[in-house]
Amino acid sequence: MRWSQGLTGAIATVVLISIGFPPSARAAKSEDIDRLRATNRCPGCNLQGADLGQLQLQGANLFEANLQGANLKGADLRSANLAGANLNEADLFQANLADANFHGANLSNANLQGADLREANFGGALLSRTNLRRADLRDANLFRTNLSEAYLDLADLSRADLRQAFLFRANLEGANLSRADLLGANLQGSNLKDTDLRGSNLQSVNFADSNIAQARLSNNLLADALLQGTALGPVVCVIDRVINCYTDPKVNVTLPRLPDSTPAFQGRPVAPAFQDNSNPPGERQPVRGLWNFEGDFPESQSN
Fold first, then answer.
1. More confident residue, 35 or 17
2. Residue of 216, 160, 213, 164 lying closest to 190 (CA atoms)
3. Which pTM was predicted?
4. Cβ burial, residue 303 (10 Å; 0-12/13-18/19+)
5. 254 Cβ neighbours under 8 A, 6+ residues apart
6. Whole-angstrom Cα Rg for the chain
7. Pick from 158, 191, 205: which is nearest to 177 by CA?
8. Handedness of CA 213, 214, 216, 220 (dihedral sign)
9. d(CA 103, CA 65)
10. What are phi and psi of 19, to 5 degrees?
11. Mapping DSSP to helix (H, G, I), strand (E, B) and coil, where does residue 116 land?
12. 281 exposed, middle or buried (CB, 10 Å; 0-12, 13-18, 19+)?
């Protein structure tokens, strides 16, 4: 009798689960897909897992739409409104998303490899673990965007707005960040090997434990940056306006020569391994080799 009651309860539970979570609540609704195709508008629609590859959706209104796991390969979404949309695990391989609005959208684990994202707005968006390899992000707005553990190798981020962006453990190997604004960005533990950082604003950037080996740096503002634990490797560069930076001993970097002054790193520079004094005073002068710095790190920076 007890066994019979238990079985009846189990069956009832299964029935309730089936009623509470019908398949149509999880998958895209056919009427929503038809609406999008007919009107180019479907704000708040359920398009989860929908096959929208290669569609012409230029200027589409998909505000807060659910596009989780959707196929948008090669789709034309130029100037589309995807603000607040859920694009988690969506496939946007080589899609045209230039000037699209992704403000506050969820693109975590999405595939944007090779996508055209020029001048796109990702302000406040979530792109954690997103594949952005070889993506074109020139002039894109990534202000306060979460790009933790994102794949940005060989991406073009020139002139992009990355102020206060969160790039913890992101892979930026070979990326173009020339003239990008990284003011206050967090690049802790990131890979910046062979990255082009020429002319970029690196003020107050957290480079702690990151790899900047073979990166190209010139005409940079590197004020109040954190370089503790950073692997600079065989960097050959000239960093301008190095002010109040926090670094570890035995940093291999090229520093500028300023008239009647020394680079104001936290700690006292002991001696360079090599210095060429042939340039006139006041001109930028590379100091290639090993700089040693003495001094204690501030407690807030060392932990």
1. 35
2. 213
3. 0.73
4. exposed
5. 235, 236, 237, 238, 239, 286, 287, 288
6. 25
7. 158
8. positive
9. 13
10. -70, -40
11. strand
12. exposed
Q: Per-residue pLDDT averaged across 209-230, rounded?
A: 72
At a CB cut-off of 8 Å and minimum separation 6, what does 296 contact?
267
pLDDT tens for 6-23 read 545 544 444 433 444 344
209, 230 contact by CB (below 8 A): yes
Q: Round to whole Å and give the CA distance between 65 and 94.
A: 21
Residue 197's DSSP bridge partners are none
Q: Return the C-alpha torsion angle 275, 276, 277, 279, nearest 10.
A: -130
* DSSP 3-state of 177: coil
Q: Are 108 and 92 in contact (CB under 8 A)?
A: no
Cα 302 from chain centre: 24
- Partners of 290 in the β-ladder: 252
Q: What are the distances in angstroms from CA 17 to CA 5, 10, 14, 20? A: 18, 11, 5, 5
In one letter, which amino acid is 109? N
Q: Cα separation of 60 and 272, whole Å?
A: 58
Tell which phi-psi region holds residue 202, choosing left (phi > 0), alpha (psi between -120 and 50) or beta. alpha
What tokens does 67 get? Answer: 């596009």
Q: Report how far residue 303's alpha carbon sits from residue 297's, in angstroms, rounded to the nearest whole number.
A: 9
pLDDT single digits (tens) 234-289: 443 334 344 444 444 444 443 434 333 334 333 333 333 333 344 444 433 333 33
Read off the tokens for 174. Answer: 């070979």
pLDDT at 229: 64
Query: What CA–CA distance (Å, rounded) separates 62 from 101?
Result: 10
